[in-house]
Fold these 3 entries.
Entry 1:
Amino acid sequence: MKKNMLNKVGLVVAVAVTLVVNMAAVLLPLNNKTTAEISDSFEVYFVPANYVFSVWSIIYLGLIAFAIYQATLKDSDYALVKKMTPAVILASIFNSLWLFMWHYEIFAWTLVLMIMLLISLLAIYYIFKQAKPSEKPRYFELFIKLPFSIYLGWITVATVANVTDIFYLMGWNILSLPGQVWSAIMIAVASLLGVLMILRENDFAYASVIVWAITGIAVKFPNEGVISITVLVSIIVLAVTAVAKQLKKK
């Protein structure tokens, strides 16, 4: 048995568990309610149109590609993936548990689990960000950075949405601002994170997920001017930042 075989099998199992639980949530669905249906039950404005949730298909494909890729790596190229393993497995656990809590409407725990999932993905990102060039195996950008950048981008948005839902349930309205205004503020914050990821990490995949998500919010609430304007300005700022970053590289 090769040196890292147990590690490789563990990651394949972790990804498989994530996929099975997510498929069960959609196909059964869990507790006879889809994830989107529960999301729509909250009278909040930081929630995208249902088509936006198709991003999970891309996340699944990325995780499958990562699982297959890491399983084929030679031991000499496996150091970085091995460092990531605990965080990847934890992300799988938190993702799966979140779905159960969400579908069975134990909402307080959904926020805890969502934050833990976000922390796990940030840990993965930090690990490969700190990796030396010699530790990064061939096709690192395609099979490691890209899948987890997309995953992190979506969970960033999902965390903000989860917090918004909990605030709604608790009846909290800090400063007594209208829901549309709070949504606009959260859109601006999410967009700022996208800008920072472009400038600091050259991560266009993360920023693209932010654009996808906030555009979906504008589509869901086409008559809310403050949301539409905030989304339009945010997309322009992100686009200008991306172009400027690319021009600076030349």
Entry 2:
Amino acid sequence: MPPLALLALLVAAWEAWVRVAGIDPSVIPAPTRVAAALRDQAGPLYENSLTTLAETLIGLGLGAVLGLVVAIVIAGSRLARSAVEPLLVVLQTVPPIVLAPILVLALGFGWAPRIAVVTAIVFFPVAIAAAGAFVSADPSRIELMRSFGASRLDVLRHVTLPGAVPAIFDGVRISAAYAVAGAAISEQIGGAEGGLGLFIVRSQRSFRADQVVAAVVVIAALSVVIYAVVGLLARKAAPWHHIHRTEAP
């Protein structure tokens, strides 16, 4: 209730400020105008959100898988860790959106550069989080497995990977909050034929600020839903981790 009450208070203050100040709706629309735009443009917003959502989910899956593979390579070799891990940290400081024009030149127009942007957004947090979890795995459990003749693959399957599941999902959940926005921004650069990013561009050209804000509201809603779904999957995949976190206080 407190977050909802605060949100309602902010929206009411926004509405009152726009009406009292007499601000041009083409510059800053009132929440009532945004609500009307959500109602009137429900069809186009729904169709474009499906495109953005598909790009986001594909990018999330690819980024998580690639990040996990790189983390396994880093954890399995000290040489690979010393060579690759610093490079990952440096590359993470470069916003993937900055790479969007380069990806368009390299991959052409279409879905490929937009999915690549989302994949990059997800890849770095997952790779770094998973690699850290692999390296910090309980050494006593690893030695116990090896004492029974377990191979590296057995240790990975039964010790390091299960222990890294919470960290992997934390990386996916953190990046999921930005993935939808990244897909929408890349649609504005990558010559998209649909998507919420293209809807925003067309609304800007028509001086429909209410539609722009409506699309932003949809992007925020999709981000919250994906974030919540990833959190639910994390609870299902590692219930012991969340039980301990709940009981810790």
Entry 3:
Amino acid sequence: MKKKVVGLGEVLWDVLPDRTCLGGAPANFAYVTTLMGDQGIVASRVGEDSQGLEALRRMEELGLNIDHVQTDPQHPTGTVKVDLDGKGQARFEIAHPVAWDSLEWTRDWQDLAETVDAVCFGSLAQRSEESRTTVRRFLKATSPGAVKIFDVNLRQSYFSPEVLSESMRLADIVKLNDEELPKIMGLHGFPYKDELSSAQRLVGAFDLKLVCITRGGRGSLLVRGRDSSEHPGFQVRVADTVGSGDAFTAGLVHEYLQGASLALMNEVANLVGAWVASEVGAMPSPKRGALENSLAEIR
């Protein structure tokens, strides 16, 4: 049975040196969630401009549910200038203010929140007070059994210790990368010794069910209570890394909702993340069942 999974937050256009691609962590996450066989829903806001109309058209074309994407008559659709280094690693320059800085709490979103199986949210979409308030209302309106995933994304100066702490308190799962982990520990006054002990400290401090630390092309570490799982990652020829972390999160959440073991969650998440990194853009189309066949091989 398909799970109802929401990507809550920013939808935007990634403006790369040679192309412009639809993106934003929640949209990327919802897209791969749909590929995994669940119902990926985007809860965001775009402008009533040509870029907003094209974003809606493109998401619908990709099979995403856009019934809960708001439109904004005053603010433009979000854009991010993306620069890639020689290894395909991305750096971001994020426009501000834009439509997703004005996420509005509506009856439609309340009804959606009450029926979801999982919702993934980040720190970037909470950079404005209005959107931050809406994100928190959405999370608090979910049912007790809904899984809440906080995907940390420390972009530019768009975060604070308060936002990070409150987000982790509201979450069941926290996912962050190995560069963000020492910063998170320091911002909360926790000593940083190593990844495992730090993740265990976060689990205890914020009553989390799972902490995931990604290591780029070197795999990931999952920590649940005193149990842990490490995965070395899959070696692929990287096209660009835009969206690969969001794909990882989608794979992780899909398996978590199925009650998978830590090892299987780690394997699937790394596989899906590596696949997106090997393709151009954050929402590539699977070629000849490549993703499905790869997933079938590890089950």
